[in-house]
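A reminder from the course coordinator: this example appears on the midterm review sheet, so study it carefully.

Given structure:
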């Protein structure tokens, strides 16, 4: 149990070193991962049930070859495609703004460094290097947050396209 308390202290000291913007990046990352978990749940648990329901409704139809039936098929595939892509825009936006939050944190940290330099009236290179290193922590955190979301965003977009095509292929005319 002691090691857990020590790790928690390490995390809090890292966040303290990065400044208040790191808290915002942490919240953004939390929301991003909630969305990733929600989409994963949808693709692997909820969507298969929807797909099976749509296919069974289609196969129970007597008419699958007329113009009207084809429009119904297109409508069902389109609705499923919309559901598959739901939330991906917001997830992409969170991925895109993560590095921007990091850059904002760097600018905020650099302003603090320059403010301290102006008050103290020092041009000590070691003091500036320590402040600059603290200021770059939010940039690193923003990039890590964005990279963690890029993989899943790309995967989900590809999965939505593939699943829509598979659904359309399984809805054969008979």
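Designed residues:
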């Amino acid at each position: 149990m002691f090691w857990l308390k020590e790790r928690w202290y390490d995390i809090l000291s890292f966040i303290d070193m990065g400044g208040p913007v790191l808290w915002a990046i942490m919240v953004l990352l939390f929301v991003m991962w909630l969305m990733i978990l929600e989409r994963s749940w949808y693709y692997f648990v909820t969507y298969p049930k929807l797909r099976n329901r749509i296919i069974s409704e289609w196969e129970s139809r007597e008419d699958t070859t007329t113009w009207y039936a084809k429009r119904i098929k297109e409508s069902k595939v389109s609705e499923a495609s919309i559901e598959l892509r739901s939330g991906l825009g917001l997830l992409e936006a969170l991925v895109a703004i993560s590095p921007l939050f990091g850059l904002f944190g760097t600018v905020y940290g650099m302003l603090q460094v320059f403010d301290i330099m102006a008050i103290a009236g020092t041009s000590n290179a070691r003091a500036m290097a320590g402040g600059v290193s603290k200021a770059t922590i939010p940039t690193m955190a923003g990039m890590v947050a964005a990279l963690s979301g890029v993989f899943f965003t790309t995967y989900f977009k590809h999965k939505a396209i593939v699943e829509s095509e598979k659904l359309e292929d399984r809805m054969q005319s008979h």
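The chain is about 90% helix and 0% strand. The chain has a mean pLDDT of 89.
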